[in-house]
């Protein structure tokens, strides 16, 4: 049996336990603490800029109001994404984020947030920005709850790893992912049984559960041999995984 690689830790929206989520300060913190990867959320403005924010609207994480899809990039940049932490940061662009991470060894997981707003053409825009920045395709994972987004992306490129996000159990996930053209499954921490995870790992599917917040979950998934975990605090997770 081939030796398993060490389980990786992805900084979920950056180090969001201590910094405003999906901001450059949260991403820089992930780099500083030695995360294996960074996960972030991608939306598209009215004029086609790809920006990093979790929600479809601005209210929860910024001092702005309204929906991302209705805003031009210039309008969106007036919102402060760090106001809840007493700071001042704009909503970052995908391009700026990729330029930040490119010189590091970190992996990047871009979640295309197309399950509510479909953002027509977002897949092609993503490819354009990745190519323009020169970010290495082998370090990129693209995920989405909207699996049609993944299907469209796979038709456009075979270079990126694609991961299906799912909060529920799936019937015959190995066959489904193969048909979709996806290489990985990102399930909710409660979506799959131990036996289901072990079967996926045995089939060569990369499993990366989200979002791990307890020691019990850390040790469960480590035992099951998943590829990686999404965590809000990389240092906390690393400390509790160390024997």
* Main sheet summary: 9 strands, mixed
Distance between the termini: 24 Å
Q: How many strand units? A: 9
Radius of gyration: 17 Å
Strand fraction band? 15-25%
Strand pairing plus helix content: what structural class? alpha/beta
Order of helices and strands: EHEEHHEHEHEHEHEHEH
Average predicted confidence as pLDDT = 96
Question: Assembly state here?
Answer: single chain
Description:
The structure is a single chain. The protein is an alpha/beta fold and 243 residues long. It is built from nine helices and nine strands. Strands 1, 2, 3, 4, 5, 6, 7, 8 and 9 form a nine-stranded mixed β-sheet that branches. The longest helix is centred in the middle third of the chain and has 12 residues, at 122-133. The radius of gyration is 17 Å and the shape is globular. The two termini are 24 Å apart.
């Amino acid at each position: 049996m081939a030796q398993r690689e060490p389980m990786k830790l992805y900084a979920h929206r950056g180090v969001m336990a201590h910094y405003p989520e999906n901001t450059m300060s949260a991403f820089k913190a992930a780099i500083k603490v030695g995360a294996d990867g960074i996960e972030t959320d991608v939306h598209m403005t009215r004029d086609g800029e790809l920006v990093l924010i979790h929600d479809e609207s601005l209210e929860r994480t910024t001092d702005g109001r309204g929906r991302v899809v209705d805003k031009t990039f210039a309008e969106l940049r007036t919102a402060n994404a760090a106001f809840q932490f007493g700071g001042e940061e704009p909503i970052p662009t995908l391009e700026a984020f990729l330029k930040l991470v490119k010189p590091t060894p970190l992996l990047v997981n871009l979640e295309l947030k197309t399950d509510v707003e479909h953002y027509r053409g977002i897949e092609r825009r993503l490819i354009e920005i990745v190519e323009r920045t020169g970010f290495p395709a082998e370090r990129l994972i693209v995920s989405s709850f909207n699996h049609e987004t993944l299907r469209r992306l796979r038709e456009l490129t075979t270079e990126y790893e694609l991961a299906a996000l799912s909060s529920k159990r799936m019937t015959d996930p190995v066959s489904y992912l193969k048909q979709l053209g996806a290489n990985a499954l990102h399930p909710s921490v409660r979506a799959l049984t131990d036996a289901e995870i072990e079967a996926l790992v045995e089939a060569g599917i990369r499993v990366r559960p989200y979002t791990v917040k307890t020691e019990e979950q850390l040790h469960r998934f480590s035992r099951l041999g998943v590829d990686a975990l999404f965590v809000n605090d990389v240092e906390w997770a690393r400390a509790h995984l160390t024997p």
